[in-house]
Amino acid sequence: MVGLKAMKRLLGIFTGMTAAALFPVQASESVVSSHLAGYTLAWSDEFDGDTLDRTCWNVEVNGTGCGNNELQYYVDDPRNVHIENGNLVITARRQKYKDHDFTSGRLNTNRKYAFTYGVVEARIKLPKTADGLWPAFWMMGNDINEQGWPYCGETDILEMGHANGIAAQAQERLFNGAFHWGVNSGSHRQKVGDRLNEYSLQDGEYHHYFLVWTPERIDMFVDDIPEPYASMDISKRATPEENGFYFHKPNFLLLNLAVGGNFPGIHDASKITALPTGEASMWIDYVRVYQKTDEGLAAVAENAVETKR
């Protein structure tokens, strides 16, 4: 049986209904809805069904620390990555595995789905990050395999668990978005937009995180707060010295729940306080990408080329 969320996705793709018509405005969605005029649903995963859709997602397996000295080993294990009650559930576990003290999950759509410009939205319930967890929802340029990082460009839509939040005892309210770019790692540049939210984003409820990406700029929003928490002008893009040079290409999506590392500033497994019961989970209700018709067609064509490589 096709679930309600899946039915909405099918209607949006095959009838061309506007996003506003598909998803009536709710109080917590009013700001995202205001940005969807002229957009239609181009892609989504509603996480209906019993298993992860592997035609959309890759589940990463590595214990490299991902360049951030993270402490977990990312595994493809249903205890760490599974579908439950219409959600993708990513679970970090205190578990000895290949000389690591933790396991967790990290997924991406690389070579399966990428897009240029649009509105990206996810509805996420975060765990208590306490001291050590680092949940993230983000994007990277689809040319990372050829060009490497940070030439590919990286856009972090949501990150929580930073060392500054730990120091201020504001782990549940301090969050950020960020941009990374540069010709190579030696010339890496970044721009971070953070916010000390008025209410907890780790309150056991779902919250909306969304990004609006146009040829001129990128803005990030949470819930029904009208002011973006992170923004960047990308209109100047003629040369690699200009930040916009790196943010006009197809991007793929990523979701992960890291443990420790440079972001929380914790590199000792004994100092991780975020797993008092041995595990903690990040629940994702859905991920959706909306595009204007001309943008959507261009993205589909580009994605078809990338998939064949």
Structural class: alpha+beta
Order of helices and strands: HHHEEEEEEEEEHEHEEEEEEEH
Name the shape in a single word.
globular
Which range best describes the helical content: under 10%, 10-25%, 25-40%, 40-55%, 55-70% or over 70%? Answer: 10-25%
**Largest sheet: number of strands, sense, barrel closure:** 10 strands, mixed
- CATH architecture assignment: Sandwich
Number of DSSP strand runs: 17
**Tally of individual helices:** 6
Kindly give the count of domains: 1
Instruction: Give the CATH class.
Output: Mainly Beta
Q: What fold name stands as the CATH topology? A: Jelly Rolls
What gap, in angstroms, lies between the N and C termini?
34 Å
* Radius of gyration, CA atoms, in whole angstroms: 18 Å
Model regions low in confidence, pLDDT < 50 over at least 5 residues: 6-18, 20-28, 299-309
Overall pLDDT metric: 89
User: Hey, roughly how much beta strand do the residues contain?
Assistant: 35-45%
Task: Please describe what this structure looks like.
The protein has 309 residues and is α+β, with helices and mostly antiparallel strands. 15% of the residues lie in helices and 37% in strands. It has 6 helices and 17 strands. Strands 1, 3, 4, 5, 6, 8, 13, 14, 15 and 17 form a 10-stranded mixed sheet that branches. Strands 2-7-16-9-10-11-12 form a 7-stranded antiparallel sheet, with no helix packed on it. A hairpin with a 2-residue loop joins strand 5 (87-97) and strand 6 (100-104). Mean pLDDT is 89; it is low at 6-18, 20-28 and 299-309.
